[in-house]
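Colleagues,

For the teaching module next term, I've prepared a clean inverse folding example: a structure given as tokens, and then the sequence designed for it. I'd like students to try predicting residues themselves before seeing the answer, so please don't circulate the second half yet.
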């Protein structure tokens, strides 16, 4: 009896188990996600597990109705490169905004400038937190899923990329969080909408990790005060902490275990010590010799490297020379940093807050509208300004218009960095991502000083002729000088400076033990340092900033101190620039373009335009003067010089003032001559030299006619017509023959 009951009990348990398993399969699995609420009530949702499950990591971030999916894939075998081979691709999809691409193929083609700049923004937020020896090819792809035209997807992409890397098995010391900070009426706005951003005097993106450590800063401002900028950075960094904490909780619950990094082949301690003993004293002497310039220092280090490599190869024949070179470079970097702490001076003999020698020149070549050369140490830029009509404004692609709200730009800056600037050979052609990023930063620094109602389109070009660090900030200085030389009424002089950082870490706590901030850094101080913090602005405030931080997070104290020292350096640079030119040029140059407005009566437009605009085309071909219509009665005339404007004005006056137009009386009866027969009526003139006016079929006769030939009308025939003034909109004459026939018929009937 017991055996029977036991078998029965086992069957019941098995049946229950089957029901439970089938219920689990029938239920839809819950999507793991976190919902982050900011202080202003906005919500950022980050989810995973739905899409791209074959990738190493995937996350979808949503703010409002804008969603971005970010995937991470990293190869399992290390590459031969000694640096981190990280590639970030951010792509804007027209379908996400309910649009079709406007190009010939109707599909997404190469990356736009906006996509490249956003990719660089994400890259600089992620790169500092990868392990030092991580050299696995890693690709981060940001796919726009939906775009609502209200919330910008760039900050959402940074947060999604942080979550994707945290959830993946890729070793990464994150997570980070990112917010956009605006400033409206002295109130800090977190993640402002597109409309709010247009009213904001600040557009700042902050990426930070836990413990309020800043990883990346980038933004532009309308001459915001220093204290307001510091307040915005503090508030934004605090808001980021909730994103970091929630991504960490998502990682703990659903993240993959981090993979083990394959240890690279390392040199024995004996070889490392041999490298140090052979190079240390000589390298120290090079960094203590303040007479070296860029090329002299580089050549001296190259000679030491070559000599040490040969001696090491002789003593250790089986050594991998590439490993020896890497070890030598690490020794040089450590010595460079140690000398700064020990000597209290930099490798060129300057104090930490000392600027390089600066010189400026303007008005260099007569045919140029504006020009300047700005020299700071061994960094030299040549800037030119070209003024043109509004027709030359830079048109933006449709998706960039949707995210920024800007359709076209009447001020834009093009930055070029040819290889001869660093005594190298290389490709000369379309600009790369680095040049595009430097140009965009310099443009942000100068844009707030350009008046909105300036009647010309401004193209500023900057060509780097020599480079030893901070060429983008030299572009801001040279660009400001060139704009003033071109007579552009800028609100104030603008300058830029790059701040560097050298740190020492406490090996136990991994906290910064000591540091030195460096003002106006050299190229070698950027390469071997821990930060490249570029700040541009006027004496009053800040117009643009970009922090490229190479350590895993920077305390707010150092950020604040760097901004303060940059403001002091910026004022000193502006004082030097003002000695060259301190305000926009008021004396006109002979080759400056001229822009005037022309008001004409509606009925005279035909004389000015000509048939199919032939008069305006002929005017442009003969004088180079461009006439564009603003509204019904207003035209804008752009001339490349005052001489061309005078010539064009003479031609326009002749067009508008041919013979004196006789005044026609409303309701008066006049003799009209047919000059052309058309399907819809006849073209007639009432006096010599008059532009032909249309007498429509409906006004030719009391009877309904389909063509003037039905009445036997021919060119040269004379008719009597009644004049009813001009159309108030089109300015065309209103004539009628039909009303005269009606009146004649009535007179005969009365008789």
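(Answer key — instructors only)
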């Amino acid at each position: 009896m017991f055996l029977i009951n036991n078998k029965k009990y086992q069957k019941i348990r098995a049946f229950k188990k089957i029901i439970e398993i089938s219920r689990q399969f029938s239920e839809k699995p819950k999507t793991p996600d976190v919902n982050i609420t900011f202080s202003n009530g906005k919500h950022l949702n980050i989810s995973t597990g739905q899409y791209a499950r074959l990738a190493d990591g995937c996350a979808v971030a949503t703010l409002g109705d804008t969603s971005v999916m970010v995937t991470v894939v990293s190869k399992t075998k290390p590459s031969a490169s000694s640096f981190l081979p990280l590639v970030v691709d951010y792509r804007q999809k027209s379908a996400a905004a309910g649009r079709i691409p406007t190009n010939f193929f109707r599909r997404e083609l190469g990356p736009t400038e906006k996509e490249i700049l956003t990719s660089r923004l994400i890259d600089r937020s992620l790169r500092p937190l990868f392990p030092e020896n991580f050299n696995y090819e890693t690709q981060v792809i940001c796919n726009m899923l939906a775009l609502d035209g209200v919330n910008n997807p760039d900050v959402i992409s940074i947060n999604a990329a942080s979550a994707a890397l945290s959830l993946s098995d890729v070793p990464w010391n994150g997570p980070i969080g990112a917010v956009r900070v605006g400033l409206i009426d002295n109130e800090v706005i977190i993640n402002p909408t597109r409309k709010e951003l247009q009213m904001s005097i600040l557009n700042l993106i902050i990426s930070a990790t836990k413990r309020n450590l800043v990883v990346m800063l980038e933004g532009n401002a309308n001459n915001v005060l220093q204290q307001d900028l510091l307040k915005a950075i503090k508030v934004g960094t605090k808001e980021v902490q909730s994103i970091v904490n929630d991504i960490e909780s998502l990682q703990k619950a659903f993240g993959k275990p981090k993979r083990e990094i394959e240890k690279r082949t390392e040199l024995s301690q004996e070889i490392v010590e041999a490298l140090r003993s052979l190079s240390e004293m000589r390298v120290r002497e090079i960094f203590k010799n303040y007479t070296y310039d860029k090329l002299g220092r580089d050549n001296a280090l190259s000679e030491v490297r070559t000599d040490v490599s040969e001696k090491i190869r002789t003593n250790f024949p089986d050594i991998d020379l590439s490993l020896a070179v890497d070890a030598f470079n690490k020794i040089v970097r450590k010595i460079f940093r140690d000398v700064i702490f020990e000597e209290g001076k930099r490798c060129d003999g300057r104090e930490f807050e000392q600027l390089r020698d600066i010189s400026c020149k303007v008005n260099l070549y007569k045919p140029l509208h504006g020009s300047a050369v700005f020299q700071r140490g061994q960094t030299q830029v040549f800037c030119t300004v070209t003024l043109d009509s509004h027709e030359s404004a830079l048109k933006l692609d449709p998706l960039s218009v949707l995210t920024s709200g800007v359709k076209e730009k009447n001020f834009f800056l093009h930055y070029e960095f040819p290889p001869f600037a660093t005594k190298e050979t290389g490709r000369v052609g379309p600009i790369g991502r680095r040049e595009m990023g430097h140009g965009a930063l310099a443009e942000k620094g100068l844009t707030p000083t350009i008046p909105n109602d300036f009647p010309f389109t401004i193209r500023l070009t900057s060509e780097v002729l020599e480079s030893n660090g901070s060429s983008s900030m030299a572009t801001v200085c040279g660009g400001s000088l060139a704009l003033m030389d071109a007579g552009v009424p800028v609100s104030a002089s603008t300058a830029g400076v790059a701040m560097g950082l050298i740190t020492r870490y406490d090996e136990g706590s991994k906290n910064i033990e000591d540091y030195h901030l460096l003002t106006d850094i050299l190229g070698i101080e950027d390469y071997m340092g821990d930060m490249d913090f570029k700040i541009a602005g006027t004496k009053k405030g800040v117009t643009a900033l970009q922090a490229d931080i190479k350590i895993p997070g920077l305390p707010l104290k150092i950020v604040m101190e760097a901004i303060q020292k940059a403001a002091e350096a910026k004022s000193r640079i502006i004082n030097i620039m003002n000695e060259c030119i301190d305000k926009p040029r008021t004396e006109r140059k002979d080759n400056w373009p001229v822009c005037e407005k022309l008001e004409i009566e509606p009925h005279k437009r035909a004389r000015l335009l000509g048939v199919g605009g032939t008069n305006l085309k002929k005017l442009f071909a003969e004088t180079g003067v461009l006439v564009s219509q603003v509204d019904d009665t207003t035209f804008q005339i752009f001339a490349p010089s005052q001489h061309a404007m005078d010539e064009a004005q003479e031609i326009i006056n002749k067009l508008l003032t041919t013979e004196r137009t006789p005044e026609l009386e409303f309701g008066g009866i006049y003799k009209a001559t047919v000059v052309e027969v058309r399907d819809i009526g006849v073209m007639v003139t009432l006096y010599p030299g008059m532009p032909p006016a249309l007498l429509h079929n409906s006004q030719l006769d009391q009877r309904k006619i389909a063509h003037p030939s039905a009445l036997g009308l021919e060119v040269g025939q004379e008719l009597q017509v009644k004049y009813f003034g001009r159309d108030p909109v089109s300015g065309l004459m209103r004539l009628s023959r039909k009303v005269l026939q009606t009146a004649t018929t009535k007179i005969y009937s009365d008789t």
